[in-house]
Amino acid sequence: MSLREATYKIQAAIAVMLMLTTGVSAQVATDSLQERSNIPEKISIEQTAADTLYIDSIQQAAARPQSTLSGDSSRVSKKRSATEVSDRIANFKPQPYKATWLAVVLPGAGQIYNRKYWKLPIVYGGIMGCLYAYNWNNQMYSDYRQAFLDIMDADPNSRSYESFFPSGYDFEQNEEYLKNLFKKRKDRYRRWRDLSIFACVGVYLISIIDAYVDAHLSSFDISEDINLSIQPDLMRSNASSNNYYGLNCNISF
């Protein structure tokens, strides 16, 4: 084989290899272009599926009954408000100044403010009892006063004192006795009437003092650390050899 023929064969082999290589590259390029063209389609499909799931979740949340949500929120708010009210009641500390002025304005208002409701029957019972005693004693004083005035004057038409005695009673024979009796009864019921007024004022003042002291004592320490113990003890005397028996009182706080 000559050199020229060998050269031609080599060039022909190279040409064939170039053709094969070009064809494979073209196929690869074509496949890559097809894959790239399919990528947006895949992305759009996945995005559509994600949007569909999001819309379904929103629809399910919207379809959920609002009564359940509102009921849960209302129960939570009620529980919270009940807890706040119980804490406020447990930590309530009355103010002495406010309790005193409430008791001055209205009897028993200081006890209501201090939340000592069991004292209200005592306060109002005492005031009503004093008012009843004042009314009764004042009526008796008025009757005996008028009877004393009638028996002391010389007018025969004014004889109201006869209503105190049964019919047929001899008033002329017991005139002096009746004068002293009516005067004593008049003075007695007048004194009792005045005492009823002072007693009513006393109940009113005691209710004010009680409201003030009770408000102060609301913050007083009454824990179990404060106790009093009393026990028998043997005491020794330094002056003599005799022993004495007594009581030992210990206060610990």
Give your account of this protein's structure.
The chain is mainly α and 253 residues long. It has a domain at 95-219. 70% of the residues lie in helices and 8% in strands. The chain contains six helices and two strands; from the N terminus they run ααααααββ. It has helices spanning 3-63, 66-90, 96-105, 109-113, 120-152, 175-217, and strands at residues 227-236, 243-252. Strands 1-2 form a two-stranded antiparallel ribbon. A hairpin with a 6-residue loop joins β1 (227-236) and β2. α3 (96-105) packs antiparallel against α6 (175-217) and α5 (120-152) packs antiparallel against α6 (175-217). The longest helix is centred in the N-terminal third of the chain and has 61 residues, at 3-63. The chain is elongated, with a radius of gyration of 55 Å.
